[in-house]
Amino acid sequence: MAVLDPNEIFFTAFEPKQANRFIMYIDGIPAYEIKGVGAVQLTQGSVALNHINVQRFVKGKTTWGTIQFTLFDPITPSGAQAVMEWVRLHHESVTGRDGYSDFYKKDLTIDVLGPVGDIVSEWIIKGALIVNANFGEFNWDTDAAAQNITLEVAMDYCILNF
Questions:
Q1: Contact at 8 Å (CB) between 34 and 79?
Q2: What is the number of other CB atoms lying within 10 angstroms of the CB of residue 91?
Q3: What secondary structure letter does DSSP report for 26?
Q4: Torsion sign (Cα): 58, 65, 130, 124
Q5: Percent of the chain, pLDDT > 90?
Q6: To which H or E segment does residue 44 belong?
Q7: Distance CA 160, CA 128 (A)
Q8: What does residue 85 show for φ and ψ, rounded to 5 degrees?
Q9: What angle do CA 37, 40, 46 make, to 5 degrees?
Q10: pLDDT tens digits, one per residue of 30-60
Q11: What is the spatial distance between Cα 35 and Cα 48, in angstroms, rounded to a whole number?
Q12: For the residues 126-146, what does the mean pLDDT come to?
């Protein structure tokens, strides 16, 4: 007869990660300008192996999804200017020249913080490049803070350190 482990049936206290406890680091963009960031996503493809009248599957290619994040755009230092410096490494609109991937691909870090500011989880996003940048809008009908900048980045892969 099996005996139940008390740890499996009784409440065990735990501390959940909270969505507002994070710091994101991007070279050239101050960390305090980063307002929000989406979660890391991946898709595992599958390959069908047909044999007589059955089908088996093995893992196919892994595709890392894009990540969106939002920046404040302060007057100084300008968030828009910091983003455009990174964009210019991809493509210089004045000359029409594109850059080498060594220059525009960056490694980003997302540190998830615990309640006392300790790092409880760390994502390293390798080879990130901007695939979409939205600099928001201005509107005379509102007295709200000016726009946020929304970026979407694609990456080569991600590492969850802990």
A1: no
A2: 13
A3: B
A4: negative
A5: 83
A6: strand 42-51
A7: 15
A8: -60, -40
A9: 155
A10: 999 999 999 999 999 999 999 999 999 999 9
A11: 42
A12: 90
Q: Contact 64/41 with Cβ under 8 angstroms?
A: yes
Res 1: pLDDT: 65
Q: Is residue 12 predicted with pLDDT exceeding 90?
A: no
The structure tokens listed for 136 are: 């928001």
Structure tokens at 43: 């898709």
Question: Sorting pLDDT into bands at 50, 70 and 90, what band is 142?
Answer: confident
Note the pLDDT tens digit of each residue in 67-80.
999 999 999 999 99
Instruction: Name the nearest CA neighbour of 137 among 96, 80, 91.
Output: 80
CA–CA dist 87, 103 (Å, integer): 11
Structure tokens at 115: 């309640």
What type of residue is 77?
A: P
The first and second tokens of residue 145, run together, are: 């803070």
Kindly give, in sequence order, each residue whose CB lies less than 8 Å from that of residue 97, ignoring residues fewer than 6 positions away: 91
Radius of gyration for the alpha carbons in the chain, expressed in angstroms and rounded: 22
Residue with tokens 């192996």: 49
